[in-house]
Amino acid sequence: MRTGVFALSLALLTGCPGDDQSSTDELADEADEGGDDGDDDAEDTGTVAPDGTKCAAGYTCWPDPESDVVWVMKDDGNTNGPTCKSVCENALSENCEYIACDHGRPLSYPDMDSFAPVAEGLGFSCREGACKWPDSPISNLHLVSIDTDEDGSKTCFFPTESTLACDVHPGNANCFGERYAAICPCVPKELDQACEWECPPQHTTQATWKTSGTSCVERINYWRKRACEEGWVECPPAGLPPMVECTACHECANSEAQYDAENGAHASFGRCGENVQGEGGGATCADVIDAFVSERAPDEDGVMRCQGHCGPIVAEGCQTFFWGKAMDSNFHTLNWRSCNVDTCQGYCDEHPGECFTHETSPDGSCDDPSVDAEPGPEIAACQ
Questions:
Q1: Is the pLDDT of residue 35 over 50?
Q2: The three-state (H, E, C) secondary structure of the chain, written as one string
Q3: Lowest mean pLDDT: which of 27-36, 106-115, 251-260, 363-372?
């Protein structure tokens, strides 16, 4: 895998040259904390537990028969993650219910004796570790050694806090070179309750289905809902949760859109901390999103797939984005999968004349998830 920031620019035209329906795409080569590292056997489709729970290749899952929790471990761990949020999403997306990390779950297993049933379910036993054992080196996480001893045991470490977390990961925690994987609690949730958000910097604490308007977030969620109802290959059986908008980075993205409208697509790429970016023109953001989706096309086997700009719109799991629009044209910037508030605000603080709002800008308030919320999709893959 390449390291550093490597940008690949694709010039994609959906209208006449120079009109407001053109679009370009910029992708930074990044490590997706929950994604496939390319080392898994392509033929390995995972496992199925006796109760029917499907577990993706590269993960070990144990549905607790005494509760609704599925305990999940990434088999090879990762010194840069992943968080339990990503572990649950990636391990369990082939089930016909969305099984998400249970953030804030009360700690029920504070030691080896109480944790023994979970360890047994996941196929190992616990042994004592070194360093600060039995305390977990990372807060709010059960950690076990990635390597398993000849007798089938792993070193097990236990959080000293009273709850478990979904937004922290093992990082580079180690003891004499021993690396760790998190044991994650995953539970079924409705799609519009599956993701944990804060407002600010996001536009709401709970992204619900609101799809009738012309804003970016409404049109994005229109297509996420439709993809699941129509059985697009990008929608897993678990479904696609509604996306949330990072409003805290909007003014910074406006500065990018203005600069790129004058200097060429992606000329300011990375200014606001983004790794994935699409740009294009349209009278409304909904028009831009529709143009991106129009790049959906059949692959070599004739299967319709979201290609080019369409891909980020139907990305799996809990997703955020932010957008900007030029001051004097309909040129739009869409930045996917990031909400780097410090970078965004830092740029605007240093360049106050470049960041601005316009008549379609979000007002920065927190959207009430209960107002005008629509029913979720009937997922075609599970009908």
A1: no
A2: CCCCCCEEEEEEECCCCCCCCEEEEEEECCCCCCCCCCCCCCCCCCEECCCCCEECCCEEEEECCCCCCEEEEECCCCCCCCCHHHHHHHHHCCCCCEEEECCCCECCCCCHHHHHHHHHHCCCEEECCCCCCCECCCCCCEEEECCCCCCCEEEEEECCCCECCCCCCCCCCEECCEEEEEEEEEEEECHHHCCCCCCCCECCCCCCECCCCCCHHHHHHHHHHHHHHCCCCCCCCCCCCCCEEEHHHHHHHHHHHHHHHHHCCCCCCCCCCCCEEEEEECCCHHHHHHHHHCCCEECCCCCEECCCCHHHHCCCCCCEEEEEECCCCCEEEEEECCCCHHHHHHHHHHCCCCCCCCCCCCCCCCCCCCCCCECCCCCHHHC
A3: 27-36
Q: Six-digit token pair at 270?
A: 């990375």
Q: Are 76 and 58 in contact (CB under 8 A)?
A: yes
Residue 79 has a pLDDT of: 53
Cβ within 8 Å of residue 16, ≥6 positions away: none
Structure tokens at 32: 């997706």
Sketch the domain layout of the chain as residue ranges. Answer: 7-30+191-382, 47-189
Kindly report whether the global pTM for this prediction surpasses the value 0.85: no
pLDDT band, very low/low/confident/very high, at 169 (cuts 50, 70, 90) = confident
Average pLDDT across the chain, whole number: 88
The span from the CA of 31 to the CA of 162, in Å, is: 31
